Amino acid sequence: MGESRLSVPEDLRVWHFAGWRYAFVQPKDMPECLLGHDPTTWPHPWRGFFLKAPPGAKLFITYPELALDLAGNGDPARGAFFRRFLSLFQAPKGTFAFWPFALYEKELVQPYIQHFHEALGFFSPRVVACFGNETHAKITSILAQNHNPTQNNAQFIECPSLADLISQPDTALREIVHILSKGLTDL
Q1: What is the pTM of this model?
Q2: Backbone phi, then psi, for 103, in 5-degree steps?
Q3: Dist. CA 143–CA 118, nearest whole Å
Q4: What are the sequence ranges of the domains in the chain?
Q5: What are phi and psi of 110, to 5 degrees?
C-alpha cells in the first residue's frame, strides 16, 4: 500500500480512516516485523497513542515527559512550545507524530522500547527527533543492546532538552527546524 490515502480505493477509504492501516496489503508484502503485530491490539496506553498518530507521519517526536502530555497531564508550557515549534516547519498536517519511548510509572520514567520499535516499523518515519541528551542516549543504547536496528533506517537526531528550548526565541528554534527538515528530505 502506498503512503497516500488516495492509493486506497474510494469505497475502502472509510475503513482506512477507521484504522485499517495494512488490511489491504498482501501478507507477503507486509514487513516481517509487522506480521502478527496489530497495533489496534496493543495494550493501554499504546493503542491510544497509535490511534492518535497520523498514518503518514515522517517525523516522530519523543521526549521523557511525552507520556504525561499525551495523557492530558502535561505542562502547558511544553504544549505552547510545540505549537510554536511545529508552526515553524510549515509542513502539511500529518507530517508529525508524537510517540513516547517511555511511560511514567511510580514517578519514574520506564522505557518501553519494544512498543517504540514496533511503532517505528509500522509508521516508518524518516526522522526521530529525540529531545534531550538522555532521550537519545536511552533509545539508541537500548536498541543497540537488543540488536534492534530500525527496519526503515530512521535517522535519530538528538535535540536539546525542552527545558533549554522553551524560552528560546524563534531564531534559535529555526536552526533545529532546519536540521530536522534536512533529515526529512535527505533520505
Answers
A1: 0.73
A2: -120, 155
A3: 12
A4: 1-30, 34-186
A5: -115, 110
